[in-house]
Design a protein that fits this description.
Length: 456
C-alpha cells in the first residue's frame, strides 16, 4: 500500500485509495479492519508522547518530479497524510522498546541520542517567538517550546518558527551514552527499523540476533544466575561491540550521516535550480523570509520549490521603488527602510522575482516585487497592511516625488500633500518628513529659534 492509498482506506474512500495504488488493489475486510485499528493506536501513542513532551516540527518537504530522461520537470509538496505519522509512531515505539531492553541488561548499544538544548543563545528564537505573540523565558523548558509551536499554528510565520526551533536544538548523533532523545521525549532510543539503509541499525540487529540465540528466540525469560550468565555470554559475543568500539563507530556514523545529508541536499538544490534556470527565470513567486543579515541580504525560501535564495541588501529598494537605506531595528529585528519606512522581517510572506541562477555555487538571486501585507508591530502582534502599502510601484509622473501613488483599484492612504507622512512599520512611529516640507510651520530638521542647528 502507498501512504495515500492506506489513508483512503482508513477514511472510507475506496475510490480514492484505488487512485493512489501502485499495484492491483485487493482490499479485504481484514486489511481495512487492521488499518483502522492501527490508526486508532497511532493516535493514542501520539497523544501519550505529546503529554510526555514530544517536540513535533512541521517542516514541509517537496518531492521532485522527473521525466523519462531523469530531468526534473516539477516539484510538488509532499503529502501530509496521517499514515506517515502512523508508521512513525510504530517505528519509534519499536526503537524505544529495543533500546530499553538492552539498557535493562546493561549491554552497550549504539543509540540515537539527542541531548537537551543548552539555549546559550536563543535571541533569534525570541524574535521568531514574537511573531506568534509568545514570550519565551530565559531558559525555555520543553513545555515552553511545545506552547510556542502550538501558538505558531495561527501565525503566517509558522514555518519560519518551526525552522528556528530546529536550529536552536542540537543535532541527534550516534553514541552508546545513556542520554535519551530530547525531541522524542524518550529516555532510551536506538535506530533499529531500517537496517537496509542505515549501518547503525545493522549493528543493533547483530546484537539482537545474539540475544535471541541465547534466549531461544526470546521465549525463555531468565532470572537470577541464569540471567547473569546470559548477560556475560552476550558481552563475550563477537556481534556485541564493547563501549569503546561503539564510541568510535558512533562518531564515524554521525560524520557520514552529515556528509550524506549534505550531498543529498546539494543534489536536490542543483536539480531545482536547474529547473528554475531553464523554465522560470524572470518569473514572480511567493517566498517566506527565513533569515536577515543587514550587511548581506534577506534570505527567502521560494515556493513551491522550497529552495533558498537571497535578496542582496544593496539592491533592495524602498517602498516606492526608489533607492533607500536599510537598517536593523533592535526591538523587532526587522529591516527598516530609513526614507520610505518600508520594512521586512522574519516570517514575512513576500513576492520575489527570480533574477539569476548560478549552478556552480548553488546560489539563487532574487528581487523583491511586493512586501508582506502582514507585519509585526512593536508589541509583537501582527497587523494587516493596507493593499497600497505592499506594492512596489514607481511614483506617477507629474506628482510630487515624496508622494507614493497607489493603483487606481487600490485604497489610497488617508493623507493629503499637507499632512504628515508616517511610517507605521517603524518602531516608535517615527515620522518621515519629505525633504523641504514644513512641519508645524517650521522647516524640517531645524528647531524653532535656533536657526542653523540641526535636530537629531
Amino acid at each position: 500500500l502507498t501512504y495515500l492509498e492506506a489513508q483512503g482506506l482508513i477514511d472510507g474512500k475506496v475510490d480514492e485509495a484505488r487512485a493512489h495504488a501502485k499495484t492491483e488493489p485487493v482490499y479485504t475486510e481484514e486489511l481495512t479492519t487492521s488499518l483502522l485499528l492501527a490508526d486508532q493506536l497511532a493516535k493514542l501513542l501520539r497523544k501519550r508522547r505529546q503529554k510526555d513532551g514530544l517536540i513535533h516540527l512541521d517542516l514541509p518537504e517537496v518531492e521532485l518530479v522527473f521525466d523519462e530522461n531523469g530531468n526534473v520537470v516539477d516539484a510538488v509538496k509532499e503529502d501530509d497524510a496521517f499514515t506517515h505519522t502512523l508508521i512513525e509512531m510504530f517505528m519509534v515505539e519499536a526503537n524505544e522498546a529495543l533500546a530499553r531492553t538492552f539498557a535493562d541488561l546493561t549491554i552497550p548499544l549504539l543509540r540515537r541520542i539527542h541531548p537537551e538544548p543548552g539555549f546559550a543563545d536563543i535571541e533569534e528564537l525570541r524574535i521568531y517567538a514574537r511573531l506568534a505573540q509568545w514570550r519565551l523565558p530565559d531558559e525555555p523548558a520543553r513545555e515552553d517550546l511545545q506552547a510556542l509551536l502550538e501558538a505558531a499554528k495561527a501565525s503566517p510565520a509558522a514555518r519560519a518558527i518551526h525552522f528556528a526551533v530546529l536550529r536552536t536544538m542540537s543535532k541527534a548523533t550516534y553514541s552508546p551514552a545513556l542520554v535519551g532523545h530530547y525531541a522524542l521525549a524518550s529516555e532510551h532510543y536506538a535506530h533499529f527499523t531500517s537496517p537496509i539503509r542505515r549501518y547503525p541499525d545493522l549493528t543493533v540487529h547483530r546484537v539482537v540476533h545474539a540475544y535471541l540465540d541465547l534466549t531461544d528466540n526470546g521465549s525463555s525469560p531468565m532470572g537470577g544466575r541464569k540471567r547473569a550468565t546470559m548477560i556475560e555470554d552476550l558481552r563475550e559475543d563477537p556481534r556485541v561491540p564493547d563501549e569503546g568500539a561503539l564510541i568510535e563507530l558512533g562518531a564515524h556514523c554521525s560524520d557520514r550521516e552529515v556528509t550524506a545529508e549534505e550531498a543529498e541536499r546539494d543534489l536536490r538544490t542543483f536539480l531545482v535550480l536547474k529547473l528554475l534556470q531553464d523554465n522560470h527565470l524572470g518569473e514572480e513567486c511567493v517566498g517566506l523570509v527565513t533569515g536577515i543579515m543587514q550587511n548581506t541580504g534577506v534570505f527567502v525560501s521560494v515556493e513551491p520549490w522550497l529552495v533558498d535564495g537571497v535578496v542582496k541588501t544593496r539592491d533592495m529598494p524602498g517602498g516606492d521603488h526608489r533607492a533607500d537605506r536599510w537598517g536593523t531595528d533592535g526591538r523587532s529585528g526587522r529591516l527598516v527602510a530609513q526614507r520610505s519606512g518600508a520594512s521586512i522581517g522574519l516570517g514575512d510572506r513576500i513576492k520575489v522575482k527570480i533574477v539569476r541562477v548560478d549552478l556552480a555555487s548553488r546560489s539563487l538571486d532574487l528581487d523583491i516585487t511586493a512586501f508582506a501585507r502582514v507585519s509585526m508591530k512593536d508589541d509583537g502582534s501582527l497587523e494587516e497592511k493596507p493593499a497600497w502599502a505592499a506594492k512596489l510601484t514607481a511614483p506617477d509622473a507629474g506628482k510630487p516625488r515624496h508622494r507614493w501613488m497607489p493603483n487606481a483599484t487600490e485604497e489610497a492612504p488617508a493623507t493629503t500633500p499637507t499632512e504628515k507622512h508616517s511610517a507605521p512599520d517603524v518602531p516608535g512611529g517615527r515620522e518621515i518628513i519629505p525633504r523641504g516640507r514644513m512641519k508645524d510651520g517650521k522647516r524640517a530638521g531645524f528647531k524653532k529659534g535656533r536657526r542653523g542647528k540641526k535636530s537629531f
